[in-house]
Amino acid sequence: AEKYLQQSNEKSFYDETSRAIWGYIRNKYHLPFAELAKEKMQQKLMEKQVKENDITQTFDLIDECEQALYAPPGAQWQMQRTYDEAIKLISRLEAQLK
After folding, report:
1. Distance (Å, whole) CA 92 – CA 70
2. What is the DSSP string of 15-60?
C-alpha cells in the first residue's frame, strides 16, 4: 500500500489497504477466505474484547477503501490519512489480540 501511495496510484492503494485489513483479521483468526464477512469479523473482534472504537474504525476504513475504489480520483492527502489510520489501527489491534 505504501508503494502505491508514493506512486499516487489510488485504485491500487485502496485495494491493497482493504486487502491488508481483511488479510490481517483472516490470518489472525485462521479464517477460511470463504468465511470472510463483516459480521463474522465483528463477532471475532468482539469475542476477543477489542475496543468498540477500534471495531468501528476497522469497518469505517474498509468502507472508505471500498467507496474509493468506485469513486472518481480524489486527493493525495486522503490516501495518506487512510494509510496512517490503517497502520495505527492494525498496531492497536495487534496489541489487543495478543
Report:
1. 28
2. HHHHHHHHHHHHHHHT--GGG--HHHHHHHHHHTT--HHHHHHHHH
Quote the cell numbers at residue 62: 474498509
Spatial separation of the C-alpha atoms in residues 73 and 11, rounded to whole Å: 8
5/68 Cα distance (integer angstroms): 13
Q: Kindly report, residue by residue over 41-92, the tens digit of the pLDDT.
A: 888 889 889 999 999 999 999 999 988 888 777 666 688 899 999 999 999 9
Evaluate whether 73 touches 3 at the Cβ level (below 8 Å).
no
Judge whether 75 and 12 are in contact, CB under 8 Å. no
- pLDDT for residue 32 is more than 90: no
| DSSP states of 5-19 | HHTT-HHHHHHHHHH
**pTM given for the model:** 0.81
Helix (H, G, I), strand (E, B) or coil at 37: coil
